[in-house]
Amino acid sequence: MIVHLIDGTYELFRHFYGLRRFSKGGDPPFGAAVGVLNTVLQMIEEGATHVGVATDHVIESFRNRLWAGYKTGDGIEPALLAQFHPLEDALASMGVAVWPMTELEADDALASAARLAAADVRTERVCIWTPDKDLAQCVRDTYVVQVDRRSKQIRDAAAVRAKFGVDPERIPDLLALVGDSADGYPGLAGIGRVTAARLIARHGALEDFPPEVLGERRELALLFKDLATLRSDAPLFDDVDALAWRGATAGFTALAARLDAPRLGARAAAAPLGPQP
Known about the structure:
Blueprint: E1 2-7, H1 8-23, H2 31-45, E2 50-56, H3 63-66, H4 78-81, H5 84-93, E3 97-101, H6 106-118, E4 125-129, E5 144-148, E6 153-155, H7 157-164, H8 171-178, H9 193-203, H10 211-214, H11 218-228, H12 252-258, H13 263-270
């Protein structure tokens, strides 16, 4: 089986701003959520059997306690923020495994789901559908890969090394040094990506850097590495077949109508089912 893990937060943002280009400033109340549902349902129609979606039920996480500048919900369009919970409810009603995260982030859920799915001997490949560079740390050879929907690129371990200059497991070290503006931590001043990759190639993990390399900034770098390191121990499911799509619930057609997307109900009813228990 091929397991598909979808970054629901990224998809919601993508559809919201994609739709805004055509809506001339009037944001449909559920337009982005319906866009994500269409995307997930299309994957099922095209043969995906095992699917899971992770979302940020709340934007803040434990990382906000570690670093005051870490990303929050401030600045997110209210019309976008209001669609997170309806999307989660609609995915569940459509029969798709969904993980609304609170203390952890959606990225942590994807990392956890990838670990759990990859451990199953029946799994042929795990595809993590997100361009987020944080998730590059989860890539393993050609077995666990990232898929960028917009560029249609599949990023395996060789592609991660080509893009970032480090192995996937060293992505947190790289981000600790160069920072991640999207997540709100700056990295170390004066260290760019090329220099960071060279230091990691020479010394390995930040913990193994000679003391003189980072000097008094070592503790700050290790804090940033902690922010960048995805947690992969969330107990999301016991068996990968929990991700098998077995059809929408009885209430999905009515819910789709309330979202002003009645065709979704008919499509879900006609879509091929995954393995049955």
